[in-house]
Amino acid sequence: MKNDSDAARVAAQFDQLTHRVASSFKRQLEIARASQDHDGVIKEQIKLEVLKAARGMFAGSYRVALGNKPEGDWNDV
Q1: Rounded distance between C-alpha atoms, residue 75 and residue 59, angstroms
Q2: What is the pTM of this model?
Q3: CB under 8 Å to 51, separation ≥6 — which residues?
Q4: Distance of CA 57 to CAs 17, 21, 27, 35, 74, Å?
Q5: What span, in angstroms and rounded, lies between the C-alpha atoms of 55 and 63?
Q6: Whether pLDDT at 26 is above 90
Q7: Cα–Cα distance between 77 and 14 in angstroms, integer?
């Protein structure tokens, strides 16, 4: 990356993208719960947990590479 502002833009884009994906997973989770689809609930919960882990890995990598955390709360989805 050219500088920290480039890294911050990448982090902001990843944050925005993963929040949109999480919203989709949450909607599917609501549908699965409403239809009492136990397997669907588990599937969507797993997807959300994997996405949460990916966000944590991104934030950790950002911190190691640049010496500071990306802006925002990276513990949620």
Answers
A1: 9
A2: 0.87
A3: 18, 21, 22, 25, 77
A4: 15, 17, 24, 33, 9
A5: 12
A6: yes
A7: 12
